[in-house]
Design goal:
The protein has two helices and four strands; from the N terminus they run ββββαα. By secondary structure, it is an alpha+beta fold. It has a four-stranded antiparallel β-sheet, covered by helices on one side. A hairpin with a 2-residue loop joins β1 and β2.
Amino acid sequence: MTGDLPDYYFRVRDNGAFVFRVDTENRQRRIEMDQIAAVNIRNGEIKPHGDRALSKNDLAVIRDWMAERTAILAERDIDDIHRAVDYMNLTTQWAQSKASDEQLEHVTDALLLAMHDLRSVLVRKKADRLVKGAAQDGNEDED
């Protein structure tokens, strides 16, 4: 089993991960994990642990992991939004067909405010994209 282990292990945390080098080539044939760095996905920072110097291979593996992790998180974000759309549809169906007056009274104001806020942001962002697209189209016409 130990032959199948990766050379590095990333313990995920809020903004990145702690990076460990995995060692199975020791006398006791135990799995040892030696922390070599801490990484921050948001700002791209890679901090060696303690007085350690990271090799070019260490840095390459860490940067590859950071790129892959960023892509995974972006996929999760958009998936969460698609789920929110589904949940909004289910909420609409619930309000129309199952909700009691008391239940509706309990959630209506919060839902209306949240939907108004979301709508305002979406309309503003769409307008910004349309203006930006029109400006880019105008610049292309000049070329």
